[in-house]
Amino acid sequence: MKAPVAKVSERAAKSVRLGYPWVWRQEVLVLPPGLPRGAIVDVVDAQQNPLGQAFAASTSPLALRLVTRQPSAELRLDDAFWRRRLELAVARRRPLSTRDALRLVHAEADLVPGLIVDRYGPALVVQTLSEGADARKEGWARLLAGLTGASLVVCRDDASGRDFEGLTREARVLRGGGATVVEYHEGESTLELDLLRDSKTGSFLDQVDNHLRAGALASGRALDAFSYHGGFALALARACSSVIAVEQDPDAAARARANVARNGHRHVEVVTGNAFDELRRRSDAKETFETVVIDPPGLAKRKEGLDTARRAYHELNVRALKLVAPEGLLVTCSCSGKFGREAFEAMVLEAAADARRAVQILERRGAGIDHPVLPGLPETEYLKAWFVRVL
Questions:
Q1: How many CA atoms does the CB half-sphere of 273 hold within 13 Å?
Q2: Following DSSP, what letter does each residue of 284-339 receive, concatenated?
Q3: Residues 75/37, Cβ–Cβ less than 8 Å
Q4: If we measure between CA atoms, which residue out of 232, 235, 210, 233 comes closest to residue 366?
Q5: How far apart are CA 181 and CA 125, in angstroms?
Q6: CA dist 39 to 48, 53, 81, 113, 233, Å?
Q7: pLDDT digits (tens, 9 = 90+) for 270-315
Q8: String of b and e for 139-155 (b: at least 16 CB within 10 Å)?
Q9: Could you give the residue numbers annotated as active site?
Q10: Residues in the chain with pLDDT < 50?
Q11: What span, in angstroms and rounded, lies between the C-alpha atoms of 6 and 13?
């Protein structure tokens, strides 16, 4: 049985053919009324040429998310189809099989639009970022539990991105039971988190490789701003003489202190405070550190806020650069997808000029291989982590 048909503009059709898997509502010419929640539609161009099948959203500005380039007459998107998509996503992570915490499904980049799945030991955390994914999360949780042997699957559908999609927020257990507080590892460090109460899916697994790389390159006295649960700080502690970790959220700071104690690092101090204020105060006081890390939350979630975010990133980097001792290391990060790699590097270099510091760029890094990039969708290459030597 053929699916309902959505017709899109020639501009949208061209973008889809070039690999962009999204169609915004203003580019939709015809969308059948009264579609059920999370419906799948055939997508055609203005001349009725098929483009594939997509999730249709009832109210989101992002109206269509492409699932496959085959029309419904050729391919049925049933349980067997989704099982195969999820099996392939999990199989792609086999090179990371020694890790007990990693991303298993990275939404569009794994061809499962709107689905994020992170693993922490025996538990899975699911986020659904589209109406189509939200409508299927119970079934997908069942499939994922079977594929991975996970004893607990929770959903963390309580982020602000749900508002953009017109979806209600919720955080709950989908399958299994038991404690939602779990341990996991980053290299030699042991961390703890609460899957239902800590931010995002519990941690920031996209930064794990950068945590470990920073630990390999760090030395001396270190400052970790926006520390969250101490991922960077714990890695730095293995190479540095002392570490100051700054975190504004009291609950996250408490979790970081517990993680520091769990790993026996007596030379790590967790400070509860605003990182902007701490950087300003310490640079005004002429403090210096051999290693400085700044890993702020996303400051540009929408294109409209990009200029304000750029100014904030610039201020952070100027202050951080002033704190780095000669021949020291700055690790500067941005997870704002709207703030691209070229713009980010230009900002870093302008900040260096304003701080009157000469720099070398040692590495331009992003997320780990469990967070792959879909070339046609720039939003999947959101994380930047520049490793900079300050001369």
A1: 16
A2: HTT--EEEEEE-PPPS-SSGGGHHHHHHHHHHHHHHHHHHEEEEEEEEEEE--TTS
A3: no
A4: 210
A5: 12
A6: 20, 10, 16, 13, 45
A7: 999 999 999 999 999 999 999 999 999 877 666 667 788 889 999 9
A8: ebbebbbebbebebbbb
A9: 335
A10: none
A11: 11
Cβ neighbors of 307 (< 8 A, separation 6 or more) are: none
Q: Which two tokens stand for residue 227?
A: 């520390």
- What pLDDT sits at residue 343? 92
**Inter-residue contact 22 to 8 (CB < 8 Å):** no
Quick one: tokens of 85? 């998509």
Beta bridge partners, 152, equal 123, 176
What is the CB neighbour count within 10 angstroms for residue 241? 11
Q: Exposed, middle or buried: residue 59 (CB in 10 Å: 0-12, 13-18, 19+)?
A: exposed
- Complete edge-to-edge strand list for the sheet that includes strand 152-157: 101-106, 115-120, 123-128, 152-157, 170-176
What's the pLDDT score for residue 161?
Answer: 84
Let me know the angle formed at the C-alpha of 134 by 130 and 137, rounded to the nearest 5 degrees.
135
For residue 43, what is the enclosing H or E element? strand 40-44
